[in-house]
Every structure is written in structure tokens, then in C-alpha cells.
Design goal:
alpha+beta
């Protein structure tokens, strides 16, 4: 199961993709986009992602290399978009390395872009500054990011398998019902968590 969480983080935007690929290993990727130009850059990102249009932003340069954030529509296949942090080396044979990447259906990206555009007007100089990312856990039932500020539930001692840090949808049984209706194959460990919660809440 793949998720994109878009929320305000101080005077900026926090996009958490779970799972993503970081240095070749599956993990959650929290990406904070700062509001450094009165929302212009964030609006450009949101508009591009919503429209499914390629966009390069967040360029940083160092000795002999450049790192960019890029949204790549229809990559690596039609109907799939990739958000990536790409490092390139200078020179004719410069190496291109995808340091972090998140592949999602284009429809999911469009929804994330719309959410981003809704948040931008709420940002401003009065928003509290945030220099560090808010810590999150991944819901053991669906891998959705669960922040302290999330609307979520915590269960402790749920039968023989204590479960903590559940997202709201898994705690109320919506995730399990949706998976059963769609007949989607689920990792046995995730299914065990969801069924334990369902039995506890019954």
C-alpha cells in the first residue's frame, strides 16, 4: 500500500511518501518544502503535480555536482509519476544517481498537488518556524505516516499482539474492509495487525 501525506509544517509544506526508495532501500521519505518566496515556488510545484507536468525545483550545487528535486510524469511507465531527488556530476560522463524516489499513480499525485495548493494560502510570516521535521511512525496496518498531529488512534495491548501508532482508517476498520472488497493481496504481517484490531474493536 502506497500513501502520500501532505500537511502544513510551520511556514512550509511537508510531503511524506511511504514507502519510498532511499538509497535503494524501502523507507518513508519526509520532504519539507520551505516557503521562501511568498508561495510562488510552492504554487508552481502544486500546479505541475496536479496537472501531471514535469517540474524541476530545489536545485542545490556543490563542488562538481548538482542536486535537484524533480517530478517526472509517466516515469518509469505510463500512468505512473516519480518524485525524485537526483544527483548529477559535472562532465561529459557525469553520473546520474536517484538518491531518493517515490513512484505513485498519476491520480494520487494529482490529489497531493491539489492538497498542496489548498495549504499554500494558509502559509505566511505568522506561521511558526519549523527547522526540524516532525517525527512520524508508519502505521503497522497500512504503512500510512502517523504524526503526533495526525487524527489517529493508539491501541496498547490489543490481544496477544500489542499494536501502537495505528492510523485512523486502520483503527476503525476501513482499511481492512476496503482490502477485502478489492480482494487485494496483503502482506501477512499487515493482515494480522488489521485482523487483530478488528477483533479487538468488535
Amino acid at each position: 500500500m502506497q500513501h502520500l501525506d501532505v500537511r502544513q509544517s510551520g511556514n512550509g509544506i511537508l510531503i511524506t511518501s511511504s514507502p519510498a526508495e532511499i538509497d535503494g532501500v524501502p523507507a518513508a521519505w519526509p520532504l519539507r518544502l520551505r516557503n521562501d518566496d511568498d508561495g510562488q515556488g510552492l504554487n508552481e510545484v502544486g500546479a505541475a503535480v496536479t496537472a501531471g507536468r514535469g517540474h524541476v525545483f530545489g536545485v542545490t550545487e556543490g563542488p562538481g555536482y548538482r542536486t535537484v528535486l524533480a517530478f517526472l510524469p509517466d516515469h518509469p511507465e505510463d500512468g505512473v509519476g516519480t518524485l525524485a531527488r537526483v544527483r548529477t556530476s559535472e562532465g561529459p560522463d557525469g553520473e546520474v544517481v536517484f538518491e531518493r524516489s517515490s513512484e505513485r499513480p498519476m491520480g494520487l499525485w494529482a490529489e497531493a498537488g491539489e492538497n498542496l495548493l489548498r495549504i499554500v494560502p494558509l502559509l505566511g510570516p505568522d506561521a511558526p518556524p519549523t527547522d526540524e521535521l516532525e517525527d512520524c511512525l508508519l502505521c503497522p496496518g497500512c504503512y500510512r505516516p502517523v504524526y503526533e498531529s495526525s487524527s489517529s488512534h493508539i491501541l496498547v495491548g490489543a490481544g496477544p499482539m500489542p499494536v501502537i501508532g495505528l492510523c485512523r482508517l486502520c483503527a476503525e476498520g476501513t482499511s481492512l474492509r476496503s482490502l477485502r472488497q478489492a480482494d487485494v493481496p496483503v502482506d501477512p504481517q499487515q493482515r494480522a495487525v488489521l485482523e487483530t484490531v478488528a477483533a479487538t474493536m468488535a
